[in-house]
Amino acid sequence: MTGYRYSVYTRAARLALIEKAVAYDYHEHDPFAPGAQGAHPFGRVPVLHHTGARFYETAAITAYVDLAFPGPALMPERPAAVARAVQVISIVDAYAYWPLVRQVYSHAVFRPAMGEPASQQSLREGMERAPAVLAALDEIAAEGLVLSGPVTRADCHLAPMIAAFVQAPEGADLLRRYPALAAWWQDMAGRDSLHLTETPLP
């Protein structure tokens, strides 16, 4: 697999591989480096190569990992639970990534650590948008079909976003207001797969 150490989507794919107990080779690729040319046609990460085929887009990669390899199933069996897992993945991509990661985490944590300029306006906007996202996810966690038991692809996709978000003190404080989601994160954060995929900032 090719990925970027600071990419939450790379981490999501790696979580799926680890939770599925799949051994893999990892190759680092910074898609933001000048002149970077990777295997992804749109210049993104991660990319998974297996049996001569190339898979990109994280949801496609985690789906392939779950179906192509033996090991614990990363999707539930009940139709309603499957739908909820897919719903969480869609929420992550469409509504969670930008405010939680690109606005709050990036401007409160990542950019300052990298010596890059941060925008307080972007941080404020992310914090304003985050409650709607967390409330929707908290409702799903409280329902108990996913985000409440065995690890699924939904957990793999969501965990890197929350891991980034709570590194900002504002994010950690806000998460505590959503008890079901906070309880899920407390359990998820203790898993070996999360520790094995941690990348400390400089």
UniProtKB/TrEMBL annotation:
Highest taxon in the source lineage: Bacteria
Domain GST N-terminal: 1-73
GO molecular function, one term: transferase activity
Alphabetical UniProt keywords: Transferase
Domain GST C-terminal, residue spans: 78-202
A cellular component term, taken from the record's GO annotations: cytoplasm
CDD domains with a match to the protein in the record: GST_C_family
Record carries keyword Cytoplasm: no
Keyword hit for Chaperone: no
Protein name (database record): Glutathione S-transferase family protein
UniProt lineage: Bacteria, Pseudomonadati, Pseudomonadota, Alphaproteobacteria, Rhodobacterales
